Structure formats: structure tokens, C-alpha cells
Amino acid sequence: MPPKASPPIATSEVRFRSLFDNTPELILYQNEKAIILDANPAFLALVAEPRGRVVDHCYDDFLPPEVHALFRQKLEEAFAGKTVRFDMFAAQGKSAPRHWDVVKIPLWENGAVVGVHMIARDITEKMLAQQEIVTQNQDLQQFTYIVSHNLRAPLATALGLVDLLGTEEPDSPYFEETRTHLQASLHQLDLVLRDMNTILAIRDQKNLAEAEAVPLAEVVQQVVQNLQEVVAQCGGTVRVAIPADLSLRANRAYLYSIFFNLLSNALKYRADERPLEVSVTATGGEGKETRITVADNGSGFDQQQAGDDVFRLYKRFHPHRPGRGLGLYLTKTHVESMGGHISVHSRVAEGTRFIIVVPY
Amino acid sequence: MSQRPAVLLVDDDAATNYYNQRLLQRMQVSQEVLVASTADDALAILNTRCGHPATAACPTLILLDFNMPLFNGFEFLRAFTQRHPALPQAFVVVLLTALPLNPHLVEDQHLPVTAVLTKPLTAEAVNQLLRNYFGVS
């Protein structure tokens, strides 16, 4: 039996036309003067222009001025016969700025380059993921640095004190005092290790499985209730304005901890000159991001000096008030475990405002 | 300078201050060991006592904790050098750190740090400081 004839391969023209029309990558064909001679539908869709307003126009018209020189240079290199590849971050036409992996490929005819194809792939997601990993690595490195210093400090003192103890007269006041300080150092060491355990437990991804739809107003009311006595004692008021139906997919205990920490801080760092006023507001729901604001009229801090350090582990800003520099670090970790972000605005003697944004 | 200097200890941790103070006391390094638990307190001590650094009241040996809340060791020294641009040369400033610091980290600050020591402070290290910088043998 003769072999069955295989179906004919589509002509090159049909194949390449299909690729050109349907690929999500941007494809342009340009002449030496950077005029666009052909553009695929992906490009037209990105710049949101009809074909007639793209073809026969200069590519520069669709690029921000700061990348014009780069594109000219790369186009020249391609016309010199080289396939060139580069990354850029830029808007094209009316689109938002994106990261692009750009390849320019010369088209040869009779030994000369007659035009250049450009293929641009959107690598924004990849770049963002990469940047996040870099940030996370930096965070981890800083975390390790801070933790090792904060573990070694009480340990070093304990090592010194235990040597000293060996040289003091037993039952002397010096012996007793040295022993007391030794004990304090060991407790400090223990505290740091316990902090690590708390932090690692929050970061443990398994806890995300416990996320449930938690009514925000209910949790905040619970925190306010538990702090009511302290608030009343200092003559303060807490105003809560949160829609009753607003809930957040979160671990309830973490959510409680966030508000407990922020309100405790507002109480701790209140201004002596005026009664404390704290407002807790939130908006969101129905497919929108949740935006929570906790604002007080307390003593505030110098944001210029502190920067983002307020959220840093064991970083403290009020030497004369008790605190270990753990609260805001934990708050940030809790917020981030919900996929959210926390920021702060503060002015000395005016107050502090924390803003938490959790994407839908 | 073969006089035993007055010493200023700057650390936010009470146990560390006690240990350093007791060590120096036992070694009879100085007539006077001053203790400050915050950078502000330390600056205040220097302000009141060091109008003339050459006098005995001024602590010319400063043992400074690197890792303090609010003001770390560098920030303290920056505030000190800003307030008294001419003074720091008259002092021996020893940075005490929990773990060895990268030497570049210290050099890059261009601050008057004479030496960096890893905690805990030892009698041997103190003797070396006295030998090297105060001519005490």
C-alpha cells in the first residue's frame, strides 16, 4: 500500500503571518531612519493606535525621549549587521511603563541589510519577581545581622560577668550584684531567642492556611475594648469608622496583633500637652483593596531621621520610654503575611499616621 | 600623657555598664569611671566636663557601645564632632561591638574612632589601650 500523503505544510507566508498576527510579543519592521514600516496587532494594541497612525511614523513618536538615543544606537548596530538584544524600562505610546526584553534582527537581501525587525517581550512580571527576591534577600541578610548582634551582645556580657563572678568574694555585695546582672543578661538572651521564634512562626507560610474572612470592625472593637481602661485613664478617645460589612482574609490573631500594637504605640507615645485622639478608619471591599488608617495626635517622630527604620527589628526611637523595638517589626511582618503593605507618616509634636493597604 | 584618664562608658545595657565599670574599678585604671546609658547623657557629660579636655574632670577615654537605640555609636560620634569640631582629637574613642565589624564600615565613616574592640572588654585589652594611648605601663 502506498504511504498516505502527509497534509501539505502551509506556505511560509501563511505560517509567518499567523505568528506575526497572534504572538503576544511586539513585532516591528523598521527602516534605517527608524520609520515603522510594519507593526503587528500586539504593538497596535499596546500603543492603542490604529495601524494608519503607526505605519510610516517614526518609532521615536511612541517612546519617551530618554530612550531615543539608546534605540537609535541599537538600530544602527542592527543595520551594521548585528543582532542586538537589550533590556529597557519605558512606556510605549499611551501604555504604562513596562520592562521590555528587546531584540533587533537585521534583514539581509543581496548582501545588504535592508531593514530591521524588532521583537519586544514584556518581562515586567519577571523583573518584579526578581526585584522582590533581591529585596527579600537583603531583608534576610539584615535580619541575620541584627539577630546575631542582638544575640551576641547579652552573651558577651554574660561571658564577662561569669569570669568576674569567679573573682568576686562569695557573699559579698559585689558577688550578688554581679550575679543579678548575669541573670539579667541571660534573660535578655532568652528574650531575643523567643522573639526569633515569634517572628519565624509568623513567617511560616503554613499560617496562611488559617486565613479566614475576618470582620475588621469586630477585631478593632475588641482591641479598643481591651485597651479601654488605659485609654480612659489618660483621658484619650479612640474613634473607629469602619464599614460593618468590611472583612479581610486574614489570620484573626495577626489582625488583632496589628491593631493592638498600633493602638498601644499611640498610647505609649502620646503627647503630654493634649488629650490623646486616635482614629481608626478603613475603606474597601467589593473587589477593591482594603485601606486602613490609624492616626494619632501624639508626640510623633522625626521622619527625616528615622526613615523606614521605624519598622526595623530592635530599632527604637524613644530612649526614655520602655520598649524593645519589636512591636512595629512584628506589625510589618503580620501585614506582609497578609500580602499587604504598611507605611508611616509622622511629624514631631503633631502625630503619627500608619496606613495599611491590603490588595484584594 | 602618662596620666590615668577618667573614663566614660556609654551603653544602654545596665549589665554591660556594670561589668565594664567593675572591671575598670578592679584594675584601678582610673579615679573616675562615668557611666551614661544614652547618647544624650554622654553628650551632656562631655559638655559639662570637657571645656578643657586636658583637665582631670574630662573623660578622655570613651568606651562606646556601637549598637544603641536611637543613636548608634556612629551617630553619637557625629553629633559629638559636629558640636565640638576641635575636641575629638583629644579623646581616645573605643567602639565596643557585639561582633567584629567590617573595618571598612568604620573607616568609611571618617569619625574619630581610635580602636574597635569586640565585647566583652578584657583586662588585657584595657591594659593595651593604656599602654598605647596613655603611656601607662
In short:
The complex is a heterodimer of chains A (360) and B (137). Chain A has 360 residues and is of the alpha+beta class.
Structural notes for this entry:
The complex is a heterodimer of chains A (360) and B (137). With 360 residues, chain A is of the alpha+beta class. Helices cover 43% and strands 24% of the residues of chain A. Chain A folds into three domains: 12-122, PAS domain (Beta-Lactamase); 124-203, Helix Hairpins (Orthogonal Bundle), CATH 1.10.287.130; 209-360, Heat Shock Protein 90, CATH 3.30.565.10. Chain A is built from nine helices and twelve strands. Chain A starts with 11 loop residues before the first helix and ends with a strand. Chain B has 137 residues and is α/β, with parallel strands linked by helices. Chain B has one domain (6-134): 3-Layer(aba) Sandwich (Rossmann fold), CATH 3.40.50.2300. Chain B has five helices and five strands, in the order E-H-E-H-E-H-E-H-E-H. Chain B has a five-stranded parallel β-sheet, sandwiched between helices. Chain B is globular and about 30 Å long. The interface between A and B is medium-sized, with 31 and 24 residues. Chain A: One of its GO terms (molecular function) is phosphorelay sensor kinase activity. Chain A: InterPro entries: HATPase_C_sf (IPR036890), HATPase_dom (IPR003594), His_kinase_dom (IPR005467), HisK_dim/P_dom (IPR003661), HisK_dim/P_sf (IPR036097), PAS (IPR000014), PAS-like_dom_sf (IPR035965), PAS_4 (IPR013656). Chain A: It comes from Hymenobacter elongatus. Chain A: Keywords: Kinase, Phosphoprotein, Transferase. Chain A: It catalyses: ATP + protein L-histidine = ADP + protein N-phospho-L-histidine.
